[in-house]
């Protein structure tokens, strides 16, 4: 009987330890994601409304051009973190699509072409992941090992993450109920 009690205690302790480790890791992933979301918004705060909308996007000032180039580096960092398992599946579905669509909007597309030339000449990052995202919005840098992906999932995160979705500003604002366009006057 004593060995049964010991076995039950060991199994219970192992299960509790495993759950605690999973929760700590999930919390760490959430902190990393929150940090990168804050960096993203701080970069967007440097851009004018015209730049965000793609209007007069060919006339960027130096600060705006720097912010767009830093956005590319931020996006590459996010993809690197995804490859290392520090970005959840749920978050990457939004980030990957958002990065792809942002890179195809003016002025981001023009500066991305220049950035690729700088990268090819060895003057900037390689942008391995962004080159893939440029062509494929569904690109996922995470290795597709089913067991590791299953371990990284946390069912309690899904509902909490819905409130924190990362969305990009729209090119044109839809009118509200009063008929206002939502654009700056």
Looking at this protein, list some descriptive labels.
single chain, 8 helices, 0% strand, 185 residues, 64% helix, mainly alpha, elongated
Structure description:
The protein is mostly helical. It is 64% helix and 0% strand. It contains 8 helices and no strands. It has helices at residues 2-44, 49-53, 62-83, 89-103, 108-120, 128-135, 146-152, 157-162. Helix 1 (2-44) packs antiparallel against helix 3 (62-83) and helix 3 (62-83) runs antiparallel to helix 4 (89-103). The longest helix is centred in the N-terminal third of the chain and has 43 residues, at 2-44.
Summarize the structure.
This protein is 64% helix and 0% strand.
Tell me, rounded to a whole number, the average pLDDT.
78
Strand content: under 5%
Q: What composes the largest sheet?
A: none
What letter string, H or E per element, gives the SSE order?
Answer: HHHHHHHH
As a whole number of angstroms, the C-alpha radius of gyration is 21 Å
Got a strand count? Answer: 0
User: Low-confidence runs (pLDDT<50, min 5 residues)?
Assistant: 154-185
> Which structural class fits the helix and strand makeup?
mainly alpha
Oligomer: single chain
Give the distance, in angstroms, between the N- and C-terminal Cα atoms: 79 Å
How many H/I helices? Answer: 8
Helix residue percentage: 55-70%
Shape: elongated
Draw up the topology in text.
Elements: H1 2-44, H2 49-53, H3 62-83, H4 89-103, H5 108-120, H6 128-135, H7 146-152, H8 157-162
